[in-house]
Design goal:
12 strands; five-stranded parallel β-sheet; Rossmann fold; alpha/beta
C-alpha cells in the first residue's frame, strides 16, 4: 500500500519528517511526501471537495492525505468517501499547545487505526486513538496519551483471526510504534518532527544509562505543570534524591503506560502535585494506579501544592486527610519538607 502526503497552500507541515517517522515503523505501508502544493479553491472543505480535488494521480498511490488550515463545513477534522482525504487544522492554536506536526502524525494514526480496529469510535474522551473527538480540544489529550485502550485491544484480539487482510496492510505493532513516538514527543511538549534528528538519538542514549537505577519518588503531575515539576525535580536531585520523572525516564518508542505501571510497585513514595491546572486526564489515571498499589502498604503518598496556585486547589478526596507540602510557603522550606518525607519513606 502506498500513501502520499501533501500540504495545501495554507499550511506548512514538515511532511518529510512525518513520512520518515511513519516509514521507520511500517513494513506493509510506504509513505511518500510530495512537494506539490495543493490548491483548494473553496473557502471550506467537504466530502465533495475530497472527491473533486485535482491531484497528480500518476503516482499510483492507494491513498492521498492533504493537510490544510481550511475548515470543514461540518467542523470535523477529516472526512472522506474517496481515496483522497483532507485533514483540517482550522484554529489549531486554539485547540492545543502542541505543534501541527504532532497533529499530522496523530490524524494519520487515527486513519490507520480504522484499518485494524473494528466497530465505531468512542464518543466520549478516553485518550484512545479511536476517540471520535466530540470536543475538538480533546485532540490535545489524544496526542499526549496516544494509545490503544483495553476495549479496542480486546476487539483487536477477537478480530485478528477473522481478518487475514491485516497481515498485508497493517499490524498492531506498527501502529503502536507510531503512537509511542507521538506520545513521547507530546508529553514532553516536543515537536515530533525532531525525533528524526541527531538530538533524538542523543536523548535516547542518555536515557538508556538510567535503566537500572533505583528511584526515591514518583513525580505524579499534570503535564501542563511540567516546567514546575522539572524545577522541583532538579532541587530534589541537589538534595541527593533520585526522582522518577516521565520525560527523563521513558525512551522514545517505549510504551509509557507499561513503564509507569512497572515503576509504581518498585518505589516507596509518590509526590502528587496539584497546581493551577488541576488534575489532568492522565494525571488522574496515574493517581488511581498509585492509590491501588499503595493502599495496603506502608508506602507514602505526599500531596504537593505547586507555587502557581492563587487559591487553595481542590484535592482528590483521599488526599485531603494527608499532610501536604505547600510550595507557596517560604517557611519552613517546602523542598526540605518534601525531601524529609521522601527520605522517611525509604526507611520504612
Amino acid at each position: 500500500m502506498i500513501v502520499s502526503i501533501y500540504n495545501d497552500d495554507t499550511i506548512s507541515i514538515n511532511i518529510e519528517s512525518i513520512t520518515k517517522i511513519l516509514n521507520s515503523c511500517m513494513r506493509s505501508i510506504n509513505f511518500i511526501h510530495k512537494d506539490e502544493i495543493i490548491k483548494i479553491n473553496s473557502k471550506t472543505v467537504s466530502k465533495k471537495t475530497c472527491r473533486s480535488l485535482e491531484i497528480n494521480k500518476t503516482n499510483e498511490s492507494d491513498l492521498r492525505v492533504v493537510f490544510t488550515e481550511k475548515q470543514y463545513d461540518n467542523n470535523y477534522y477529516f472526512q472522506s468517501d474517496s481515496n483522497t482525504i483532507i485533514v483540517s487544522f482550522y484554529l489549531w492554536k486554539h485547540l492545543t499547545t502542541l505543534p501541527h506536526n504532532n497533529g499530522a502524525l496523530y490524524f494519520i494514526s487515527s486513519l490507520l487505526s480504522s484499518e485494524i480496529i473494528p466497530g465505531t469510535k468512542h464518543m466520549t474522551r478516553t485518550g484512545c486513538i479511536r476517540d471520535f473527538l466530540m470536543e475538538k480540544t480533546d485532540v490535545d489529550v489524544g496526542m499526549r496519551s496516544a494509545y490503544i485502550c483495553p476495549d479496542c485491544q480486546s476487539l483487536l484480539r477477537n478480530n485478528k483471526q477473522e481478518n487475514d487482510y491485516q497481515k498485508n496492510i497493517l499490524t498492531t505493532e506498527e501502529l503502536m510504534c507510531i503512537l509511542n513516538k507521538l506520545s513521547y514527543a507530546s508529553r514532553s511538549e516536543t515537536d515530533v518532527a525532531t525525533i528524526v534528528n541527531d538530538a533524538y538519538k542523543t536523548a535516547e542514549r542518555d536515557l538508556l544509562q538510567t535503566d537500572n537505577e533505583k528511584f526515591d519518588v514518583f513525580m505524579c503531575h499534570n503535564n501542563k505543570d511540567k516546567n514546575n515539576i522539572k524545577a522541583i525535580s532538579n532541587k530534589l536531585k541537589q538534595n541527593g534524591l533520585n526522582p522518577w520523572l516521565d520525560i527523563e525516564q521513558i525512551l522514545p518508542g517505549e510504551i509509557w503506560q507499561d513503564k509507569i505501571e512497572n515503576i509504581i510497585p518498585n518505589i516507596n513514595s509518590a509526590a502528587i502535585f496539584v497546581g493551577k491546572n488541576g488534575i489532568g486526564p492522565w494525571h488522574n489515571q496515574e493517581i488511581r494506579a498509585i492509590l491501588s498499589e499503595f493502599a495496603n502498604s506502608n508506602k507514602r503518598l505526599i500531596p504537593v501544592i505547586l507555587p502557581d496556585c492563587s487559591k487553595p486547589p481542590i484535592l482528590p478526596l483521599f488526599l485531603r486527610q494527608m499532610h501536604y507540602v505547600d510550595m507557596r510557603d517560604l517557611e519552613p522550606d517546602p523542598i526540605e519538607l518534601l525531601t524529609r518525607g521522601i527520605v522517611a519513606s525509604s526507611e520504612i
